[in-house]
Write a structure and sequence with these properties.
Length: 111
């Protein structure tokens, strides 16, 4: 895992992407991450989706509807986002560092 700069973990702007199908985060270092909603839902780090003892993901892909999307997005302090999902789930807190490491773009996936 590479070290991220403070700017790389700080969002400058958060909102829907151009066609409204994904969440776009523009980071203070200029990088842009586009997250398909289902990827974010399936990556939920809460205790209901990940076994706290083993770190194993207990949430299965088949548990999540293909059209899942956020109904609301809230800041948690200055370090994380919390999503209210269309499937009723809302306990996941996504730290910005976690989100930056989750960036699915080819440049980030490569390392
Ligand atoms: Zn969860
Ligand atoms: Zn990226």
């Amino acid at each position: 895992m590479t070290d991220l700069s403070r700017e790389a973990m700080a969002p400058a702007e958060i909102g829907p992407n151009a066609d409204g199908t994904a969440l776009l985060i523009e980071w203070k270092d200029g990088h842009r991450s586009t997250f398909p909603p289902r990827l974010l839902r399936l990556s939920c780090p809460c205790a209901g989706c990940v076994d706290e003892m083993t770190g194993r993901r207990t949430l299965r892909e088949s548990d999540v509807p293909s059209d899942v999307h956020p109904l609301a997005i809230e800041y948690v302090g200055r370090y994380a986002l919390q999503f209210e999902w269309s499937d009723g789930h809302r306990t996941g807190i996504y730290p910005f560092e976690f989100l930056r490491r989750l960036c699915p773009c080819p440049a980030c996936s490569a390392n």
